[in-house]
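#struct-queue
[09:14] JT: dropping the first one here, sequence first, then the C-alpha cells:
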Amino acid sequence: MEKLIITCAISGAEVMKEHTPHIPYTIEETVKEAVEAYTAGASIIHLHVRHDDGTPTQSKARYKAVIEAIKARIPDVIIQPSTGGAVGMDNLTRLQPTELDIEMATLDCGTLNFGEDDIFVNTEKTIKAFAAAMYAKNIFPECECFEKGHVDTVLRLHKKGFIKAPLHFSFVLGVQGGMTGEARDFHFLKDSIPSDATFSVAGIGRYQMPLAELSIIHGGHVRVGLEDNIYIEKGVLAEGNKALVEKVALMAKKHDRAIATPEEARRILKIGGHKNA
C-alpha cells in the first residue's frame, strides 16, 4: 500500500476565534499552524487566507505573502490554495491564487446547499473555466466532491477532456447539504472512481476521525484540520492543527501505513503528470 498523504486544512473561511482560539488569522499565526502541522506529518497544507481581523479573502497579494512566509520555514511542503474561497465570492475573486506560482489547488466540482440560505455555486461552466485556468499554469487540481453527483461530473468532464489524468479526488463528507460521512458513503464514493485514481477524505465535524481511519485502511489519503473539525475528541477542543495531524499519524502507525513526505506525495499523486495527458 502506498504511503499515507496527510493534508492539513489549517483555517478555512468559516471557523472563527469565538469557535476556537487556535484558528489562525494573521500571517504569523498561519505560518505557525502550517509549520506545526508539517512537523507532525502533513505534506500538504490546504490554504485559505484571512485578513488580520479574521475576514476571509482570496487576495492574490495576501496569498503571496502567506505562501512566501510558509515556504521560508518549510520549503519542501506542498501548498494547496483553495479556489472555493468563501460562499458568495465571484469566480474572478476565487481564482486569484492561481495567478501565483503554485503547484496544486482545489477544484470544486459541483453546487451545494451550504446550510441555511447559503449556496456554494459551481456551475459546469465554472468547473471547466477553473480547470482550464489551472492547466494553463501547470497547477495540479484536487477534485473536491461533496456528493456522488460531483464525482459523476468529474468523470464526465474527464471523458470530454476538460479534466485530465491523473485524477485525484477529495471526498468532503458531512457538510450540511452534501452527503453524510457514514462508512456506506465513503465506500460508495471510493468504489465510484477509476482504479488508477487517487483519493483523500475530509470528514466534517464528528466524521473526521472515523473517515480518516477508513481511508487509511482502504488505501486512501486523509485531510484533517481546524477548517473541518475543531475537536480532538467529543467536547474537547484540539489545541491547534498539530494535535489533529498527530492523531492521524498514530492511526497510520496502528495500521502499518508509513507517512509520505512532500516529495513522496508529489510522486504518488503524479503532480505535473497531466502535462503529458
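[09:21] JT: and here's the second one, same format:
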Amino acid sequence: MVNGGRQISSVTLYACGTCKNNIASVLKGEKKKEIVFPALVARLEHEKSGTVLFDTGYSERIYGNGIVSKIYNLLNPSDVREEDTISHKMKTEGRKVSYIILSHPHPDHIGCLKDFKDYTLLATEDCINGLRKSKNTELVFRNQVPDMTGGIKIRSLEPLTQNDGEAGMLLKHFTEVYDVLGDGSVYGVRLDGHTKGQMGIYIPEYKLLLAADASWGHYFADRVDKMRFMPKRIQKDYKVYKDTVERVKAFEKEHPDVRVIYSHEEFPEGVYEQ
C-alpha cells in the first residue's frame, strides 16, 4: 500500500460549472449582491477501486432540455462550457472512472453521468428512485439521466447497523451511514431535506466531509431561518432540511479537526491538502 498506508492516495476538488443568484433573493435582510455558486466534483484515487468521483457537476445539457432549461436558467443562471465539465477533465487527464458516488439527482450534480461508460453508480435507494422517475418538478431532468437499464451498474447502498469506530462516530449525528466502497475508506451520511435520500461523504484518511447541498454554504447554514419563501420551496422538506443543517453544524462543532465543504461554496480547487 502506497502513500503512507492510505487506501485513498489523493483527493482532488474541481469546480465544474457555476450558477449565480442574488443573495437578497435567497435570504431576508440581505443587500442585493450577486453570488456565484461553484458545482463541486471530487475525484478520489483509491488503491483498489481506481478513480472514484463524487458527483459530476454541470454539463452543457443544462441548456438542452427545452422550456424546462429556459425556466431553470432564468431563475438560476448557469455557466458551463465543455472544458469545465468533469468528463472533459477526466479525458484530458487520461483517467478511467470506475465508480461514481451520487449525492442527489439535481442537474448540477448529474450533468455528466451520461458521458462515462462501464462504471458503477453508488447512491441511496431514494436517490436512485429519483433518477428513475426523472420528474422536472423534482429538478431531475430526463436529458441528463443515463440509461438505467444497461451500460452502467447501479448499486443502492445499505445503511450500516454497527455503532463503533468511524461509523459509530457518524451515527451519533446522522440518521443513516453507509460504507460506500465496502472497506471503510469512504462513508456516506444521509442528508435529507434538500432532496429525499441526499448523501454526503466522509473520508476518514483526510478528515474531510463533503456535505453536498445540506446547505449552500456555511454562510447560509448560519442563516437558515432567514431563507425566503421560494428557496424554501426548492427544498423537498424544509423542516427536515433545517434539522440536517443542525446535524452538520453539531458534527462540525464536535469534530473541529474535520473540514466540512458544501458543494456550492468556495473551496480549495485542486489536490486537497489537510
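[09:30] RK: nice, looked through the second one.
[09:31] RK: The two ends are 20 Å apart (CA to CA).
[09:31] JT: good to know. The mean pLDDT is 95.
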